[in-house]
Structures
1.
Amino acid sequence: MLVKITGGIRIDVSTGATGATGATGPTGPALNIMAEIQGAGSQTIPANTSQFIDFTGNTKVGDGSILVNGTDIIVPETGTYMVCYAISGGMNSSSPTAGISVSVNLRQRNVSGTFNQVVLGSFIASNFVGSTTALTNDDGLTNCSLVCVADTGGGALNNIIRLQTSVDAVTGGATAWIVEGVQTSITVTKYSDDICSPY
């Protein structure tokens, strides 16, 4: 018996027996799909062209479920993934008047190519300029986006992710952007079993 005193008045308060423990809820999703993929070598992107970054010879860590085949990063199942990239390179000119305009995005597709689009929010662009020192500038871009992997029909998942870069303009003697593989990476982490979609 508990005793509660309120305003000088004694009130006896009794509590009943503890109720039964409820059922255990369902186990949450095992979101252990992850990879960090680092490139190798270098890749020259000439002016006014676009290329997918080739991850051949890559170094990667993770749970082993994400595959890499040249330009393709292949996730194993449907769901929502957080995909982040970092890409770095230098102009092929050390002139202080050199300049280059580059853009980068993630592209998502299925095996047949019937689904092929830029990942929402993944596009980023920048202008890089030369310096007064006799060094080729090394500049980089980073971004993260949600990637919604779903069945696009007949079991064909849109589970192929590519990192695309373009050299949109050059000036002052620069003619290309040289992407450094060891300074370029993609990180993939499964965020949810639920499939995100535009709303």
Note: The chain has a mean pLDDT of 88.
2.
Amino acid sequence: MRGVLVVFICGILSVAALADSLRAGGKSYSGMFAGYAKGRVQFQEWTATEPLQMELRRVERLKIAKPSPVKYTLSGAPKKVLTAPFLGIKNGAFLFAAGDDELRYFSRQIGRIDVKIDYRAFMAEAQRAAAGKGDDDDDQDGPLRARDMVVDNQVTVVHFHHDGSAASTRQGNLAQRLCDDSRGGAAYVRVLVKDGDDPVAQANKLRSLPQFWFYDRRGELSGKLAERFTEEDISKAFEAAHKGR
């Protein structure tokens, strides 16, 4: 289909509902907790291209808005992986949920924390945050551009979605299924585009919707599908990206 279109964020959850909050070094940050390793808290701000690497000694408070299970290790048993909902950091202690109780670990007890980020939700909220910067903000770095939505070390399918199109929804479902079937080897990122004036449409020079952009594990663009294409074309483009071609 022709004519520019659409994005804005699938109306999934508001920023206030999803945002984790970090207070460190006298400053406040909003975004998503991305992990902990080697004495540093990793925190991904909505509009930043790289996560903050904050030394733990500078962290005053980390609050997780929507606690979910994470994998973590203790310094005394680095090969034993534990799983529990992570609540945040308060008064220098790492807090985990254990049923109705709360587990507390001192910093010297924690080895690492690994987090699986919901990239669809993250990109939706990142775009919402970017949109809130105002019409006078010409900075198009960050999550507006497809290449900044690429997931490290995974095949990434960026779907510029037209919400009013049944075909776009059907094709998106196929792309997501292909990624899900890869068992963690691929990530599907859906971006709802509002119109041709949308910052995402302008940043990526979109002239039609829907579009699918495919990136290989090295983060290199391996193919684009725009205007006329079939579900078979999507499968073939995904396979090419998966093979690194």
Note: The domain at 6-10+118-242 is CATH 3.40.30.10 (Glutaredoxin).
